[in-house]
Design a protein that fits this description.
The chain is of the alpha/beta class. The protein contains four helices and four strands; from the N terminus they run E-H-E-H-E-H-E-H. The protein has helices at about 15, 30-45, 55-65, 85-100; strands at about 5-10, 25-30, 45-55, 75-80. The radius of gyration is 14 Å and the shape is globular. Strands 2-1-3-4 form a four-stranded parallel β-sheet. It starts with a strand and ends in a 12-residue tail after the last helix.
């Protein structure tokens, strides 16, 4: 068995259940406490990537920050339905800029 498992997704049930068909392990949660617990379980189960829907990103922010210095697991915020807050996209932009020193994805477009 490899050291790192596949991909996990934490978020509202309606937003993540469809990802199960892609082979992603889903952790449906209904509130912030459940999200923190599920995220912790994903870390302890050694997933290589953990996706969190924007609705629960603030709840798990301290846990994600603690993982930021490590290569794995990669913790990524993703949009949730039609009501995206832009938090996931902003984090992706920051990661890319930090990695290569330039905003090659958006070239300054859409920055708040």
């Amino acid at each position: 068995m490899p050291d790192q498992l596949g991909i996990a997704m934490v978020g509202a049930r309606d937003s993540i259940l469809g990802f199960r068909a892609l082979g992603i392990d889903v952790y449906p949660v209904a509130n912030d406490n459940e999200a923190v617990s599920a995220f912790g379980e994903c870390v302890s189960r050694k997933y290589a990537a953990i996706f969190v829907t924007e609705g629960f990103a603030n709840a798990v922010a301290p846990q994600m920050k603690a993982l930021a210095a490590q290569a794995l697991p990669a913790a990524v915020i993703i949009p949730e339905g039609q009501e995206s807050t832009g938090q996931g996209l902003a984090r992706l932009r920051a990661i890319v800029e930090k990695a290569i020193g330039a905003d090659i994805l958006f070239r300054g477009e859409g920055k708040q």
